Amino acid sequence: MTVRTSTRRRTALAAALVCGAAILTALPAGASAEPAAAAATFTDDFDGPAGSAVDGAKWQIETGDNVNNHERQYYTSGNNNAALDGQGNLVITARKENPGNYQCWYGTCEYTSARLNTAGKFTQTYGHVEARMKVPRGQGMWPAFWMLGADIGDVGWPQSGEIDVMENVGFEPGTVHGTLHGPGYSGSGGIGAGYTLPGGEAFADKFHTFAVDWSPNKVTWSVDGNVYQTRTPADLGGKQWVFDKPFFLILNLAVGGYWPGDPDGSTTFPQQLVVDYVHVTTNDGVAPGS
Q1: Which residues, including other chains, have CB under 8 Å from residue 231's CB and lie 6 or more apart?
Q2: How far apart are CA 83 and CA 77, in angstroms?
Q3: Of 196, 192, 187, 135, nearest in space to 165 by CA
């Protein structure tokens, strides 16, 4: 997510920050050079009873507000705004409410939502990172699936690096964005591109699959298997490439902020980010755009 500092959250992340490239070998005589199958390293299909919280062995829930992006929501704990639906999905719900009298940077919070990450539980360097999701709709909605460098607690943001697999802002219902953030190319200066559905379709109409294929000095983005951009150090104009180290995963649904703008009279609540699965595998040598 763009326009931020390393203190995007108030509570859980700071404590949680404590925490493969392919190797070529000689082939025996007569052996064929076939690519190795990708190995799953993180899988969550969100199976479980309706109303239950996410697997605490895989995810932690962040709480608090976010002054840096000027978002309007308060991220709540437990299953208040992030729960399984009993049909194999995680549902992150943004509501126009404040049952806990939460206080935000602008005063009494107007909205609640949820944000999850795998810091301290799962990190990986390189591979195929994928989520199948249906995004919310409406002015001010800002769903995201992204990654941060696991060393953020030591080096701060943007030195940690950030890989945005998918971001959508409500005023662009048919477009998603993939972006890199690092030292000298962060916030609105991030390096990235958008992908727009054909025929005026909206991403909120149905599920779509968002992915990156990540290898040394290269990140490639795709939507439903369609590659739409590849970035390498050559795109940074001599600035530092900070993407050859472990990163952790983040899922969240923000409400308002500098980029999407705030909800208006056309925005209805509740709104939901519905996540079918999150899968991470090692590189298999046949990734899109490779």
Answers
A1: 180, 191, 192, 218, 219, 220
A2: 11
A3: 192
In 3D space, the residue among 184, 135, 140, 138 whose CA is nearest the CA of residue 159 turns out to be 184
Neighbours of 275 (CB within 10 A): 27
114: CB partners within 8 A, 6+ apart: 61, 75, 76, 80, 81, 82, 92, 93, 252, 253
Q: Which positions are annotated as active-site residues?
A: 162, 167
DSSP string of 192-209, one letter each residue: EEEEE-GGG--GGGS-EE
Query: What are 145's two structure tokens?
Result: 């699936």
Residue 244 and residue 122 in contact, taking contact as beta carbons nearer than 8 Å: no
pLDDT in tens, 60-108: 999 999 999 999 999 999 999 999 999 999 999 999 999 999 999 999 9
The answer to whether 249 and 278 are in contact (CB under 8 A) is yes
- Per-residue pLDDT tens over the stretch 237-254: 999 999 999 999 999 999
In three-state form (DSSP H/G/I as H, E/B as E, the rest C), the secondary structure along 57-82 is CCCEEECECCCCCCCCEEECCCCCCE
Helices (H) and strands (E) in the chain, counts: 2, 19
Extract the tokens encoding 58. 């895989």
Longest CA pairwise span in the chain (Å): 71
Q: What is the pTM of this model?
A: 0.87
Calpha distance 229→194 (Å, rounded):
9
Distances in Å between the Cα of 104 and the Cα atoms of 3, 42, 65, 140 are 18, 34, 6, 17
DSSP secondary-structure letter at 45? -
